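Session log. Operator J.P. requested a structure for one protein chain; no other inputs attached. Running the standard single-chain path with token output.
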Amino acid sequence: MKHLLSIEELDAGQLNGLVVSAIQLKAERGNHSSQPLAGQTWAMIFTKSSTRTRVSFEVGVRELGGTIMFLSSNDIQLGRGEPIRDTARVLGRMIHGCIIRTFDQQDVVDFSEYGQIPTINALTDEEHPCQILADLLTVKEKLGTWVGKKVVFIGDGDNNMSRSWIWAAKHLGFELVVAAPASCMPPQEWMDKVNAPNVTLTSDAAAAVKGADVINTDVWLSMGQEGQAEKEALFGDYQVNSNLLSNAADGHIVLHCLPAYREKEITEEVLELHADTIFQQAENRLHAQKAVLAAVAG
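Structure written below.
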């Protein structure tokens, strides 16, 4: 595993291995048995704003022995029109790895090809692989396993989180139901490509949540879509609230990748009731990403 570009490109063994590694790294935090990034300098190139991603990667690189530099697209030539392949060719000769948070998935793919150094997708419009690894770690900690569990994603069925969850279900075999307005579903040709019979799409949020062990949600409008009132208006029946959760399985957990817009995709009541899980999920970004860093550095 030289890069982490998408959940699509991983397999069940790699996903399980990363979660196991994250559990070990979390347990030994502050007393790591090895420093896989010792002597290495990593860069972060972000064209999207961030709290959890930036802090967790900066801390993670340092805790594994490396040094880190943050490169806003506004501060480097990439922001003035330099092609990503040229930036990659330059940085590939100077640093040991790169973490990229941007809009276009192809930028991450191109950087990995032309930079020839470990490259990590810290979020694109297509996928959010690091978040899904943190979510899987949280499910493992809270429920013991995802095997035999029913997982539900409620909200925009065609955003980076829902697509990453679909790929995770494809590889790991758990039941996944995506509940979204009909116009916010993944295209059928994309679902045909995934070919995951254990994934169901529905516009009935109440039916989706019935018997669910894990209920996920995300903001209704992804970064770059702010102000699309006509799209936001589609999600009135997809709020995660106490009434919706009344049909979930006993002992269910609620996940939100944050930031949360309370009283929109999730109510204040539900978020606070499940705050321990949601903020454990946020912390797990650090541990999951350290597992990724250790894997690609090796």
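Operator note: The longest strand covers residues 41-46.
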